[in-house]
C-alpha cells in the first residue's frame, strides 16, 4: 500500500521555478490540471484561527497581569474576583495555545509537505537564499514584479519560523515556568520547567522577558496582517 505522506522525489523543492517558495514538481503538475494548489490542510487552518484567538486573549490578559487594573474602584476585594478571572483566562488560553502547538508539530509529520514549512528553514539550499534576497529587493522597491509562491515566500517563512516556531516555544516554556511557581516546588510542572526560573536568576526576570516576548509577537502580528 502506498503511503501518501511518504517523501518522494516529487516532494523535493524545485531548485528554480516561476512558482517558488516550497513549490514541488508535484505542485507544478497539479497546476497543469487545476487552477489552484491545495496548500494548507484543514487541521492547519483550524489551528491557525484557534491559535490567533488564544494569542489575542493572552495579549489582553497578559497586559492586565503586567499592569493590573484598579480593581478596588470596581468593588471591594471580598465582593469581586476581577484579577482572578483575568489570570484564569490567561492560563486557559495558554493551555489551549500549548496543546494546539503540540498538535501542530504532530501535523508537520503526518500532513503534506507544506505543513512542515513552518518548522524547517532550508538554509542549506543556495536557491532559497537567492529567494530571500529577491524578496528583500522587492520590499525595497528594487524589483519591478513580485514572484508567485506556493506556500509562504522564503522571507515570510523565515519570519514565521523565528516569531512563531521559536517565539511560541519561548513563550510556552517561560509561561509554564511562571505557572509552575504558583503550583509549588513539588508539582510536576515545577520539576519540568522550574529550571527556567533558576536559569533566569529569579521569576521577576522571567516575567520581564515573557512580557517582552509578548510585544515581539504583537509586532509580528501587525506585520503578518
Offer a quick outline of the entry.
Helices cover 63% and strands 3% of the residues.
Sequence-ordered SSE layout with sheet pairings:
Elements: E1 19-21, H1 25-33, H2 42-66, H3 82-110, H4 126-139, E2 148-150, H5 154-183, H6 188-200, H7 203-224
Parallel strand pairs: 1-2
Helix pairs in contact: 2-3, 3-5, 5-6, 5-7
Description:
With 225 residues, the chain is mainly alpha-helical. It has one domain: Fumarate Reductase Cytochrome B subunit, CATH 1.20.950. 63% of the residues lie in helices and 3% in strands. It has 7 helices and 2 strands; from the N terminus they run βααααβααα. The chain has helices at 25-33, 42-66, 82-110, 126-139, 154-183, 188-200, 203-224, and strands spanning 19-21, 148-150. It has a two-stranded parallel ribbon with strand order 1-2. The longest helix has 30 residues, at 154-183. The chain is elongated. It starts with 18 loop residues before the first strand and ends with a helix. The model has no long low-confidence stretch (mean pLDDT 85).
- The strand line-up of the biggest sheet is 1-2
Count of individual beta strands: 2
Instruction: Based on the coordinates given, report the CATH architecture.
Output: Up-down Bundle
Radius of gyration: 21 Å
Helix content: 55-70%
Unreliable parts? none
Helix/strand order, N-terminal first = EHHHHEHHH
The biggest sheet, with number of strands, parallel, antiparallel or mixed sense and barrel status, is: 2 strands, parallel
CATH topology: Fumarate Reductase Cytochrome B subunit
Strand content: under 5%
CATH superfamily: Transmembrane di-heme cytochromes, Chain C
Task: Specify the number of helices.
Answer: 7
What structural class should be given to the helix and strand makeup?
mainly alpha
Distance between the termini: 42 Å
